[in-house]
UniProtKB/TrEMBL annotation, chain B:
Official protein name in the record: Probable glycine dehydrogenase (decarboxylating) subunit 1
Database matches in SUPFAM superfamilies: PLP-dependent transferases (SSF53383)
Organism of derivation: Microvirga arsenatis
Subunit structure: The glycine cleavage system is composed of four proteins: P, T, L and H. In this organism, the P 'protein' is a heterodimer of two subunits.
Keywords, sorted A to Z: Oxidoreductase
């Protein structure tokens, strides 16, 4: 039976003759007895539409849209002579439209299939999914910020430049660094900016040909080695030790005249502060190299310690993590980079300069930089993520120096509270010692249960939680990285801990089914990623004519 | 502090449960001398009202596009965005969700990304599109790197009609990677001989249409020449609305199409966040940068979507990845796709015709102003005029008269001897009164 959108209501009639065809072992297992035993929730009390009350199936835009429909009222212009040089489009484009009410419903229904911070606890390690205050949204939409053009005269955007200058001052003060490059568009772009500044500094010293190695600990985010490689550095790994820390001896062993920099995350991705960071910085500097710090985990130490005091030369700051600009389902981010005195001169254009008379100017060209400045170039068109700057400054103004310090302390306290609540049932790879704002478990506690880290993550979905970061960092087997952030109440943490305890007991007591078939209650059951990669379908194409499809 | 749920009692109880007396014991690995005792030297916490006052004061010092006759373009365009768009992108489940790594509870994001990819592919005339880049300029940098991977060559040729910021981004990236870049001289009237620059060592040719001076370019001959030499054509656009009226880059032979999507659904935002559109042919997908959303089925056989081909990406491949990009422009791509859904083919093509019609009207009116010469033979919604005086000066004088007239070419290309050239854009937001105000103000100043 087909519903009004031409979609089958019963899963088995989906038109996929054999869902298990081409699937990997894991997917095949999902089709097995475990799944059937628990049963598909769609199997009971089927509905005509396939909807289940508030859980609505929403077809693709291309299945419900119409080529002659528009949700925007525009008047056709009067006749005129086009000046397109005969390059007018002659073929239809293939873009269906919807009326306004249909558009509203399409996207509201889609939104209801998503989990967000406002839905519940979002303990995604290294991602800092904290509360997104709506004040920040309101501020970013003030017309003086949202409705100004990047290239309108500088005299007409003095308030926007003032905001950028103020944001920069806050970031420099919190980090005790010398300069800031605001323009990078996200964390990885910030890494690129910092590494480009380092490369420029090395070239300025005439060592560009010889210093071409970047040390990257195995526990680093994948963006670190990818960034270094992008601009021609060779990546040399620094292995992890059993205690989760990077040791200064291991760094020293790899140092030499060929080393340009180290890219170190601190606090690191194991949720630990690097106790030897100052010694590592000194060793790096003594060897004539630079210290790039990945600032993804800055939320643990804002207002508690200043990266500049630790010897950092460059660090990107994810405004979309630490300073709560919304993640938006994968961006936009913003990745300003703070620079030490050794690198400040190489900051890219554009940057804001405060004049003596209280006005601001925008330096947009390398040769306008003046003084000893030697910008390495330009990261992006225009001036960066203004919309994110406003939100981040609104966050900082609201918290103040006292609130930011408190937020870091609460973030660390919450993570340790989870550690204390789960240490007896789940396994801590580096022992039961204090962590920073995220706590890392491995999968040793799942040994012989037949349950994997992935299964635990999916079972958490059924319990109403977003899973933690899984299988990262790579240095720990079956990693589960939990970052609650400061936005969670004690009651919320207590329920979360109780839930994970219940899951841990279930796994240990042999209730595999609860895990291996999960999620049972999400808008979709487990999705076949192998199939998606093996035969990529990356856009909608019109269905084959009915006669063909029936064969 | 209104954002922090813990009370002091909670904190004490939690510290006791953890087994420490003071929170600083949890920071024991931070060198003691470096652990800050007091809050840093910045103002203390503020209520909503106070924050609103501070930021509103800054906002009020700027002149918003909607408040004056406005003709500024050069890579970012003032368009009307329907109220529905901004409402929908602020739905909690879109706004506060993460990159859809857990597809079972992120089908909302994944389905709109699949729809977005389909729309971008259709608009550019290409076979596949990714789930977005940061913006057009960084996307162009990535396109050049991708072309180098595909062709195993390291030389890019940049047209003199490419937005100078885009060219700067490509040059910065290429210099750092020791790749070669040939940059053509600024090409005001689309007369450059780019074909002669293409040879067997060329990886890619980067050509923008409409170009930064507004000219509409025929990409076909460039694509043909590039293909003869085993090079790729990267077609760039900065005004996505133009694709509603112009031949698609794909139909003219482009191998990679990259552009700025801000015009559809996104506010000016003083330059960001925007959304980079990136499309190519299927045979190149494994060399593409960025995220891709693909269709699959779940364990019950129901259709669903996942991020796919992630073996190209940094979190799997590390230093062998096709790009270091991680977070992209999710919410801006949502704004794009919602606005595009509202427009549909009918609305988009009409919007494009209105833009072109307004620009034609403006060009005709400006041509009759003494001291103004319209240089373009072809254009979409933006063109170059030559003024009797330096454009930067004229633009400042026009600010005093309450008109934002455009972008002086000298701002983008200082020292190029193009000081009297002004880029003027006209979209659907401009009225007859706006155009009359611009012409009248120019008459007074020139």
């Amino acid at each position: 039976m087909l519903n009004r959108q031409g979609r089958p209501t019963a899963p088995q009639a989906h038109g996929v003759s054999d869902p298990a065809a081409g699937m990997g072992d894991q997917a095949a297992r999902l089709q097995g007895d475990d799944t059937r035993a628990r049963g598909s929730s769609a199997g009971t009390h089927p509905t005509f539409t396939g909807n289940k009350a508030l859980a609505q199936i929403e077809p693709l835009l291309f299945e419900i849209g119409r080529y002659d429909t528009t949700g925007v009222d525009l008047d056709e212009p009067e006749d005129f002579k086009p000046r397109l040089g005969g390059l007018e489009r002659k073929e239809p484009i293939g873009l269906p439209g919807l009326s306004e009410p249909e558009t509203m419903r399409h996207y509201v229904r889609l939104s209801q299939q998503n989990y967000g911070i406002d839905t519940g606890l979002f303990p995604l390690g290294s991602c800092t999914m904290k509360h997104n205050a709506r004040l920040n949204e309101r501020m970013a939409r003030l017309p003086g910020f949202s409705d100004v053009h990047p290239l309108q005269p500088v005299s007409t955007v003095q308030g926007a430049l003032e905001l950028m200058n103020e944001l920069g001052r806050y970031l420099i003060t919190l980090t005790n660094m010398t300069a800031v490059a605001l323009s990078p568009k996200a964390g990885a772009h910030g890494e690129l900016c910092g590494m480009m500044a380092i490369k420029a500094a090395i070239e300025a010293k005439g060592e560009g040909k010889t210093r071409n190695v970047v040390l990257v600990p195995d526990s680093a985010h994948g963006t670190n080695p990818a960034t270094a490689a992008l601009i021609g550095f060779k990546v040399k790994p620094v292995p992890a030790r059993e205690d989760g820390w990077v040791h200064v001896e291991d760094v020293k062993e790899r140092l030499g005249p060929d080393v340009a920099a180290i890219m170190l995350t601190n606090p690191n991705t194991c949720g630990l502060f690097e106790p030897q960071v100052a010694e590592i910085a000194k060793a790096i500097h003594d060897a004539g190299a630079y210290f790039y710090c990945d600032g993804a985990n800055f939320n643990a130490i804002v207002g508690k310690a200043k990266p500049g005091d630790l010897g950092v030369d460059a660090m990107h700051i994810n405004l979309h993590k630490t300073f709560s600009t919304p993640h938006g389902g994968g961006g936009p981010g913003s990745g300003p980079v703070v620079l030490s005195e050794r690198l400040a001169a190489f900051a890219p254009v554009p940057f804001v300069r405060a004049g003596k008379d209280g006005s601001f100017e925008l330096v947009e060209q390398n040769n306008e930089a003046g003084g000893t400045a030697a910008p390495f170039g330009r990261m992006t068109a225009f001036h960066g993520q203004m919309g994110m700057y406003v939100r981040a400054l609104s966050y900082m103004l609201s918290h103040g120096s006292d609130g930011m310090k408190q937020a870091s302390e609460d973030a660390v306290l919450n993570a340790n509270y989870i550690r204390a609540g789960l240490a007896d049932l789940m396994s801590l790879p580096f022992g039961n010692k204090p962590c920073m704002h995220e706590v890392l478990f491995d999968d040793a506690w799942l040994k012989d249960t037949g349950v994997t880290t992935l299964d635990v993550a999916k079972a958490m979905i059924d319990e109403g939680y977003h899973p933690m970061t899984m299988y990262f960092p790579l240095v720990v087997h079956g990693a589960m990285l939990i970052e609650p952030t400061e936005s969670e109440s004690k009651a919320s943490l207590d329920l979360f801990i109780a839930t994970l305890r219940d899951l841990a007991m279930a796994a240990k007591n042999g209730d595999r089914e609860r895990f291996t078939g999960a999620p049972y209650h999400a808008p979709r059951r487990r999705l076949d990623e192998t199939r998606a990669a093996r035969n990529p379908v990356l856009k909608w194409t019109p269905p084959a004519p009915v006669a063909e499809a029936a064969e | 502090m209104r954002y922090l749920p813990l009370s002091d009692t909670d904190r004490s109880e939690m510290l006791a449960r953890i087994g420490v007396k003071h929170v600083d014991e949890l920071f024991a690995d931070v060198p003691k001398s470096l652990l800050l005792k007091e809050p840093v030297d910045l103002p203390r916490r503020k209520g909503e009202l106070e924050v609103e006052r501070i930021l509103s004061r800054m906002s009020a010092k700027n002149i918003p596009a909607s408040s004056v006759p406005f003709f500024v373009g050069a890579g970012a365009y003032k368009h009307h965005v329907p109220a529905t768009v901004d409402h929908l992108i602020q739905r909690s489940e879109f706004l506060t969700s993460y990159t859809p790594y857990q597809p079972e509870i992120a089908q909302g994001t994944l389905q709109y990304l699949f729809e977005f990819q389909t729309q971008v592919a259709a608009l550019t005339g290409m076979e596949v599109a990714n789930a977005s880049m940061y913006d057009g300029s960084t996307g162009t940098g990535e396109a050049v790197l991708m072309a180098h991977r595909v062709t195993k060559r390291r030389k890019a040729v940049l047209s003199g009609g490419l937005h100078p910021h885009y060219a700067d981004v490509v040059r910065t990236l290429s210099e750092m990677s020791s790749d070669e870049v040939v940059t053509m001289a600024p090409d005001v009237d689309a007369a450059e001989d780019i074909l002669s620059q293409i040879d067997d060592s060329t990886s890619c040719v980067v050509v923008q249409s409409p170009d930064v001076f507004g000219n509409v370019r025929d990409l076909k001959p460039i694509a043909d020449k590039a293909h003869q030499h085993g090079a790729l054509l990267i077609a760039v656009f900065t005004e996505a609305v133009s694709l509603g009226l112009l031949k698609s880059p794909g139909s003219m032979g482009a191998d990679i199409v990259v552009g700025e999507g801000q015009s559809i659904g996104n506010a000016l935002n003083f330059g960001g966040p925007y959304v980079g559109l990136f499309a190519t042919q299927s045979k190149f997908i494994r060399q593409m940068p960025g995220r891709l959303c693909g269709e699959t089925v779940d364990a019950d056989g129901n259709r669903g979507f996942v991020l796919t081909l992630s073996t190209r990406e940094q979190h799997i491949r590390r230093d062998k990845a096709t790009s270091n990009i991680c977070t992209n422009s999710g919410l801006c791509s949502l704004a794009f796709t919602i606005h595009m859904t509202l427009l549909g083919e009918k609305g988009l093509t009409r919007l494009a015709r209105i833009n072109h019609a307004n620009a034609v009207k403006l060009a005709d009116q400006l041509a009759s102003v003494k001291g103004v010469e319209v240089l373009n033979k072809t254009f979409f919604n933006e063109f170059t005029v030559k003024l009797a005086k330096p454009a930067a000066e004229v633009v400042e004088r026009l600010v005093e008269k309450g008109v934002l007239a455009g972008v002086p070419v000298s701002r983008l290309l200082p020292g190029a001897g193009l000081d009297n050239l002004l880029l003027v854009a006209s979209t659907e937001v401009n009225t007859d009164d706006d155009r009359a105000a611009l012409c009248a103000a120019l008459k007074e100043v020139l």
